[in-house]
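Anyone? Bumping this.
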Amino acid sequence: WKKDEFRNCNQTPFCKRARSRQPAFSSLTAHQVTISDGDLTARLIPKNQTDGQIKPLILSLSIYQDGIARLKIDEDPTLNPPKKRFEVPDVVLPEFESKKLYLQRLSTESIDGDVGPSSVVYLSDRFEAVVRHDPFEVYVRRKGGNSRVLSLNSHGLFDFEQLRVKDEDEDWGERFKGHTDTRPYGPQSISFDVSFYDSDFVYGIPEHATSFALKPTRGPNVEESEPYRLFNLDVFEYIHDSPFGLYGSIPFMLSHGKSGQTSGFFWLNAAEMQIDVLGEGWNAESGILLPSKQKTIDTFWMSEAGIVDTFFFVGPSPKDVVRQYISVTGKPVMPQLFATAYHQCRWNYRDEEDVEQVDSNFDEHDIPYDVLWLDIDHTDGKRYFTWDRVLFPNPEEMQRKLAAKGRHMVTIVDPHIKRDDSYWLHKEATQKGYYVKDATEKDYDGWCWPGSSSYLDMVNPEIRSWWGDKFSYENYAGSTPSLYIWNDMNEPSVFNGPEVTMPRDALHLASIEHRELHNAYGYYFHMATSDGLVKREHGKDRPFVLSRAFFAGSQRYGAVWTGDNTADWDQLRVSVPMILTLGLTGMTFSGADVGGFFGNPDTELLVRWYQLGAYYPFFRAHAHHDTKRREPWLFGERNTELIRAAIHVRYTLLPYFYTLFREANSTGIPVVRPLWMEFPSDETTFKNDEAFMVGNALLVQGIYTERAKHALVYLPGKESWYDMRTGTAVKGGITHKLEVSQEYIPAFQRAGTIIPRRDRFRRSSTQMVNDPFTLVVALNSSQAAEGELYVDDGKSFEFLNGAFIHRRFCFSNGQLTSVNVVPTAGKSQFSSDCIIERIILLGYSGGSKGAMIQPANQKTEIEHAPLRLQGGRSPAVVTIRKPGVRIADDWMIKFL
Amino acid sequence: SSSFLKHPYYGISPQDENYYKTSSDTIKCKDGSNKFTKTQLNDDFCDCLDGTDEPGTSACPNGKFYCQNTGHAPRKIFSSRVNDGICDCCDGSDEYDGKVKCPNTCWEAGKVARDKLKKKIATYQEGVTLRNQEIEKAKLSLVKDEEELSKLKTEEKTLKGLVQQLKERKEQIEKAEEKERLQREKEEREKKEAEEKAHREKSESVEEAKQENNDVQEHASFEKKPDDSTPDDKVSVLEHSPEDQDMAKGNAEDDKAAEAEHVVTSDNVEEPWNEVELSAAEKIEQSVSPKSEDNSAVVPDTGHDAGSELSHHDAGIELSHEEAKKVGNDASESTEELSREELGRLVASRWTGENNEKESQEDGVKDKAHEVHEEVPDSTHDGEDDGYATDTDDDTERYDEAGKYDDHIDNDLDESYEDEDHDDTSSSYKSDTDDDLDLSETTSPSWLEKIQQTVRNLLQAVNLFQAPVDKSDADRVRKDYEESSAKLSKLQSRISSLTKKLKHDFGPEKEFYSFYGRCFESKQNKLLSLSSHACLVSLQSLPIQTSYPGRRSLFNSLGVSWDKFEDSYRIMLFSNGDKCWNGPDRSLKVKLRCGLSNEVTDVDEPSRCEYVALLSTPALCLEEKLQELQHKLDLMNKEQPQQHDEL
């Protein structure tokens, strides 16, 4: 890690200024508080302003369905500011606007002995939003009483640097490491404090390689730390346990506390942001006491530019907050089935022969995989959309060969365009003026893989559309329908730019400064690519695009991964909090490079990484070109066996994962979740980021140390858990010291759940579509369980028209039923002949020997059969053999 | 899907059918984990973890499906391939659920396979013969080498004695001379008072000259007088025989070249040049270098071969230097002074380890093959230009290389080289080049006898008690002593290299005996090429030109050295090569295949800095393997006619 290459807060003037402010710094008061066009509006004016120098700010508070308050503060456009401040377009869903509630009235109260009034508006049936006039403060509270949920400017740290005309003797330029930022518009930063009430921990604001529960960065008992930085950067060999900003930024924070309640705060702003989590007692000297006995976590938000456009989410459950956030920024993609399976990547599979060898080796070792990836060296001199014709003379044929086995290919397309006049893409982009401009309004010329490069101005919808067209089979020579795309380096990474990125004074759309949208650049690039793939198949094929950079809303366009990690145990460990954080902030389709990108993992680490990675939502192995080859069969038979078993776990659980992806797609609830999302009141889980839930039914604990003999696993809740490998019931609510073997990492199915599996292993997920299912019914103490299965064609958008099978399985009163989750009016356009070949009952206390299947009225036997078919000895468990019921049908199995 | 099954024993091999066709109602799983009823056989539900009950379906993940493949070879495939929509068996028997139609391609595929097998068998048949010849030859060579070794050892003993005698005699002569001198001095001193001053001065100058002569001889070094227009005593000492010397005298051109080589070689000695040597070397370079290009007779082939190798090696060295530089840059980061382009390259190089300057040179070069083309002549040229002219720190290494790749290097030069004190690094040089030495002269028995006779005569002829000592006799003793001890050290080095060779692992039947010190060439391959000789056993440095992705084409010297055979003599391993940036030490695995000639057919870098070469060689054409192949063909042929009839 090149620490010196990146600015810390002290080297970042706006951050340094903001951080030096004391509580009660702000003297703004709210005036002209009124209802206008369904919003609460006000003007913010400094309290003791005599000279009239500082112009009033405009505040508007809007209320949306489902308990969302949106607070915007900007300069007054009617007062002729030098420039319109940037508002991030295309992140908030258009349909969100239609959820706006038109406020009719506000009530005025005098709260807690305030001299001035507070204006109160309706937020939801249980919550109200309040604007306190003097000092200005905005908060959300529960109705009846003054129990707060979230507040802004309670500590008076609000500051808004208004754009102004430069004084003659002023120098607005900023210099860092030989780079000069001209800053033609001068200081324009915004900062404020946000408080989360009834809160023990805060989470979110990816991307950092650090603990899941965010540690305080300032405070009396806190080691002085940098704030959490949100600035998309290509960080070489990033380190774990650091608040340093990585490849993506989502300025969304959640809090959770003992009450079991969660709230969330989102600031839609794409400029560099720095966020302090303030440790208890941080303001002890200020003398300000909050009028509340609620346990609070204060945070301090600073951004270099843009406006205040913030969202308050009231929850109250963790899943509610996520749903509320998703209603603003969009639902996670419904991936193609293949994309949820195992991906094999390396920088670089060198040529067609290499590709063929790797592919056939998977078959030879009976290890399934779905996607083979090609990194930058497949291109002709890093000119994307081209092929190195020496190494890849027949790319179509290569892809067809893979496709014949139901496999797919992904090639890389990065945003830096080689400045080469003979390169058609560069020529066209130059002619059309589609590049980002430098401060002097010439095409910006930076350095990346191809050498001298320019960058498309993706914030412009016209350019995005043009870019999307490049993915047509016609334009992308050598591409076929089984080819999908990987967007790397889209922070953007500029090797010779300040902090390895684009200068902040570069210009987009003629007038937007790069500083204003930096964190969203990768988002627009991802969007344009994803839209391009949709266009390629005329809206019939779901896109798959992996991106490294991301922003709020990126979940709508594809998957992300945690970038260039390193092959060491710490990085294996930190991958879990990183992925949990991404999931919580909408980016559920995420994973870390299995094996670690830099360096050579020793065999044990690699095996452990596969065992953990099999549960990542996005499961891909990747490696730097200087590392030793590490395909699964290269470490001796025993390790091949272990890696195969780990990959098989994923393939067995694909029906479950796919069902969870559908849940995420419709609700935003992440595939991989923190324990407290399922057990919100269990305090033991709040800091736990070694274990995680896959859906609501599966708890997984990684093994993060070498030669581990034991693992401490906390199993929350009152109900039992069933060991995935043995079917043994383990008590909930306590921490177990478990013996650990090389063969697997601990994983448990929660009592009361049903998990659909597919136990037949094929070359890839494609060959599994006709295979029968197994249901694993884990009964709770009342001999009941519930679970779902979602199946569709795995690739098209027809599911949006109801072409899917979505079943709910319920076991209660000695019978198992399958019913439609969404009772469709007509007939589903999707059907399947797939049957259920096996139903396994864990924790079944009845002594039935047989069962009756309805409506067929057919008797079937109950016997003991193996829990698993793969991976050594398996205990016998109660099994209904070949019930033969179809997944598409309603049925009932009654135990006799 | 079981309903599509053609019969209950589907997917079972004929050898295995009896296991299932039992009279009892239940069948045991082969792993003993369970048992199943006959109705459960192939009922598309897995009862045995090992798949015993589901040979014909995909229900058990651990099962195997047997395809008969009549007309071709039978095959067992993973159960996961059954009814997966992909035709795996050439008879199509793995896809029977009606979702795909698999044509029977066994006859065509079988014919191709049989033809291929027949070809392979033919190769093996011939290869086995070649191999046996090779083994016979190896046995003979081995015996020859062993005989030579024992003979050399005997000769060494004799020669040692001779040298000792000569040495003693030489010392006696010198003592006598000293005595004589002292006597003369005494006499002269006595005369001194009576004689003039000038007379005394004259006697002193004689003494000085003698003294100098003695000193030089004791050193036995290659010091040369500045005057090299005629071969002086010290050079002639290096010659093996009077004939050689005569030839050298007769051919000033040759001699100059030899001297040039000689001086250059002596450069290996890790001693500082003294002034005399340096000036001599400079002169020789001046006089020889311009000629070396057209005068191929003088330096046959060495100029070219060694030159190009040198340059490759140079590139390697330069690269590593630059890598080191880059690392240094990284550490002491002064990025502010870099140009924007330099900064871009520097940051990029972190991910790639790529050399900045190299990259810039190659920027814009699209075709990798083209790059390869461009670089080779370039560096060869460089090598010729400055191979002998530069006087840099890595001279030592460079000349090591030169020797190694040079098959035709002059005996005399080698010998003189070996007369030097060598450090460990040059030992491999010795063993390599020694094999190419023409030792016919040394091994001829007449030579030793001749010398013995000469010495005997000499010793008899020189009368120690004769005074004054005969000057020419004394010189002859001295000369013979020098010559004999030179022969002795040559003999000893030959003994040590032979001993080393004989200790080597040449395979169970010594089938790799002929590999020792031999070089194998490879044709250009699309990623990598052995751009010249690769000495696979004695190899110390294999210059490989690579266009490894992300690194473009750089010259890499692997610097690997022989390690061992692996995998029952099917793999030759060379390891401990040069360190790679961010990678392992370079290594080379040579996979051996049966073939009619020794030929490198492929070189690859499957993993960063881990190279793999394929070498076809008769040494791998094993009789057992041939029988195995023949058996396989017999089996194939056995099934073929019925199949043909069916068609």
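Late reply, but here is one note on the structure posted above: The two ends of chain A are 65 Å apart (CA to CA).
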